[in-house]
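FW: tagging you since you asked about this chain on Friday. Here's the raw sequence from the shared folder, copied in full. Didn't touch anything.
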Amino acid sequence: MSSRAATREYSHFLVKYDDGIRYTCPRIKIMTEGRVRVGSRYPVMYGNSTSSPESAEVAEVIDTGDYLQMKTRETENSEVTSPTSSSPQSPVASPVASPVASPYVIRKRKKMPKTTTSKKPRQEAVLLSMEEGIHDPYAYRSPSISPQLPLHLEAPSPTPSPTSPIVPTPTPTSPIVPTPTPTEAEPTAFTIQKTLAAIYKQLEIYNARQTEMERIILSQNQKIDYLVAMQRQQSFRLTAPPTPTTPRTPTFHQRQLPDFDTPTRDERPDTPVTPSIPPVMPLFLPTTPTAPTTVRSVPMHLFADIPEGVRLSENDLNQAASSSTTPGAFAVSLLKYLFQELFTADNLRVYFSYRGGGKLNKRPLDDTRKQYLRRYVTAFYPSVTLDSAYTAMVIEKINQFLRRPIQQKK
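HL: got it, structure written out here
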C-alpha cells in the first residue's frame, strides 16, 4: 500500500531544488515519462513554460496533491526557513562517500526579467466648438449631411389653410408664458429616401402617359391621312343616257322630269285644281362602287437639291405611292430606284440591313442614299417624321424585305 501511495499522482507536485527553493509545478513541468515517485529526483522546468527542455534543473519531489494544498505548503515552508549566514570557515569534509553523480547536467536557473511596456500618457481633451444640444434626446439625427434636392425633384409644400388657428386669449390673472419657436427639423435619411421613391414612381407614371399619348397621336395622324386620301378620290362625270330611237315606256327617272307640254288652268279652265306633290327622290342613287385612290400631290421643288443619279421623277414617285398603302411599303418600292445593286440574281440584299451589324454582321446601306430615301418617305407620309415612328414603320419593313431572298422564276 505504501508503494502504491508513493506512486499516486495528483494534478500538482511540490519540488525542492538544490539551492533550497521550493516550487509548485504541474505534471507537465516534470521532464520524465511514467509515474512520478515522491522522494525521487527529476529534471523540472521552472517559470515560463515556453523555455526549452534543456534549461530544466534537477529537483526532488517532496509531495503531491492539488494546487491549493501544494501552494499552501510551499508558503509555510518558505516562512519557516530563514536564510543562514555563510560562515567564513570552509566546511569539514564528511567521511560519508559522495552520492552517485546524476546523468542530468545541473545548470543555473536563468531568471528572465519582466518586460513591461510603458503606457502612453492619456492626452487631455480639447474643446473645439460648443453648440446647443438636441431638444429631444430620443430624436434621430443622421450623422451625414442631408443632400439638397434639385428644384424639379422637390416635393410640393402643403398650402397653408386660409383660416388661421384660434389662439386663446390669456386671462389677466394667469401669467403670460412665451411659447418657444419650433426649430426647423432636419429631414432624416429614411424620409428623404421615401420622398425620392415617391417622386421616381410619379415620373414613371408620367413617362408611361407620355408614351401612350405619342402612340395615340400617331394613330390619329394615320387616320387623318387615310381620310384625306379618301377625299382626293377621282370624281366621275355624270352623262345623260342615250336617247332611244324607238318609243318605249317611260322609266322612273323620266317620269320625274317636269312635263312642260301639259296645259295649265289658264289654258283649260275645266281642269280641276289638285295640289302639286313633289316627286319622291330615292335616298341612294344606284352608282358603281369605287375604290379610294392614294395618289398624293407633292411639289417636286422639294427635291431639287438631290443629285440627278438618285433624283426620282414625278411619275416614278406617283407610281410607287399608288402601289403602296403604308409608309413601309412605299419605302420598299423606292429601294429599286435608289439601291439598284441589291436587286440582282445573286441575292446580295440578304447580306445588307438598314444599319448593319447584328448577329450575322451584315453590311449597312449607304448613309447618303438613306437620307434621300427618308426625305421622299416623309414628304409623302408626314406621320413618320418622328424617329420612333420612322423606326417602327419604315426601318422594320426595310429589314424584313432585305431578309427575303429573290425567288427564282421557274
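FW: The longest strand covers residues 57-65.
HL: agreed, and The beta strands are 12-17, 22-26, 41-44, 57-65, 352-353, 363-364.
FW: great, closing this out.
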